[in-house]
Amino acid sequence: MSNHKVSSKKSSATSYKVSLRDRFRTALKLHKENSIQTLLDILRQPTNSLMTILVLAIALALPSAFYLFMTNAKAVSQSWDGGIKMALYMEDSATEKQAQDLLAQLNLRPEFEQVTFVTKDDALREFKDYSGFGDALDYLDTNPMPYTITLEPTASFSDPKELEALAQELAGLAQVDQAKLDSDWIKKYNSILTISEQIATFVSLMLALGVLLIVGNTIRLAILNRREEIQVIKLVGATDAFIRRPFLYAGFWYGLIAALLAALMVNVVFVLLKQSTSQLAQLYSSEFSLLGLAPSFTLGLLVIGALLGLIGAWVSVRKHLKDINPQ
Amino acid sequence: MIEFHQVFKRYSGGHEALKGVSFGLPRGEMAFLTGHSGAGKSTLLKLIALMERPTRGQIILDDINISNVKDRQVPYHRRKIGMIFQDHRLLFDRTVYDNVALPLIIAGVSDRDIPKRVRAALDKVDLLTKERQLPIQLSGGEQQRVGIARAVVNKPPLLLADEPTGNLDPELSEDIMNLFAQFNQVGVSVLIASHDLGLIARMKHPVIALKEGRTIRNELAEVDFA
Predict the structure, then answer these.
(1) Which of A160, B63, B120, B148 has the most crowded Cβ, counting Cβ within 10 A?
(2) Shortest Cα distance, chain B CAs vs residue A2, angstroms
């Protein structure tokens, strides 16, 4: 071992200190290396990571599917809103003349596309046809039906709230008993939508928590697998940040890849459903066409996926790195 | 370089590993720490590297009382110390070169300097030709030299070695010890725990002998400490 060269310069014997500039540069380089390396690790070992990513993707795809369903359900109800009709029932004491006067007045108002007068006889006939009480009604001495005016608002005047206000105004007119909107079932539909939305939000939050836990557990196993390596690295002076970084990147990639996969899944389902819904819409002679995931939503999904992955990894790393110390 | 003032270490299980150890290792000195296994040699080294904290007493390293080094600062503390272990503690999935480069990468040494410094360290331990090999392809003595190259690559002022020759035959052991002596000659302080008494006697460096946590022979004792 005579050829071992040991520097004889005393000054260079110890120089463990590194300039700030070099440290900063190296940190940047490490970020780049860690991010690429962890991505390659995930892609290179599909058997290890595929199951995790699939589970994560499903957990992210479900809320997205909920969201897609809700947007479409709302779009459907909006296309119905235009079709709300109003009926004015006159008081029993009102004469046909009074009803006709009111009709003339209403015809002048810009809110209505079409105003129709329904006589007592017409109303009774219609009621007989639809109610099934046909014969029983014959026993009545007088026609119990009021004069009725049906009103169809114009397309530009279809906001349910405005219609509601208008109905109240008209109900206040002399000789008018009540004004009814046929929007009750739309209201029911909308309140069911609201409940569904709340349930979907709750389930989505649960699934987000699930994503956090799954990523956290995956990272925990990765940390335990590299326990000895971490011990050695700590011995030669690695900071927690240095050790943490690759695990955080791994969590980030898991979340991002899973979100990409989730967006893909939802879009595939969308394409499959689009055909059959447009057929259904045609049967109802509706113009409705299924709405896909908006680009902004897809972007949001990717951001949320990556963030959940990062946070899950962070929590796991915080908890488990502390326990690994060199022996 | 290192000062121990009445240092006690009791492990959580109740085992008392050190019972009032005091000594001072001057800067640039090389010394041996001997004693049977269980005498407290490893504990003493672990206290210096802050792998353990003393129960009582003070340890001064490089004029810093290391009780004041916060957990967050421990990595920077360890960068001042090159550590060598009996079992080498190499990363077996990385090449010799990557193992030696590790402390430099961790410390943030620039890309430009890393190859130069790694090769300089490998040259010193005579392993320049094996930089592309994996540790598993090397002999025990060569693995230990990789461990030494890794310990010295960022030029720490202090080297600690825990039974560095424990698994080696006498001839290789002497080579390894001579290597430490060469680093010592350029100003690095060296403290080696070893029970190879014959070898230690030939090296002619101060010795601290531990028995059951106490110093039974202390050639680095300083009067002030008593």
Answers:
(1) B148
(2) 10
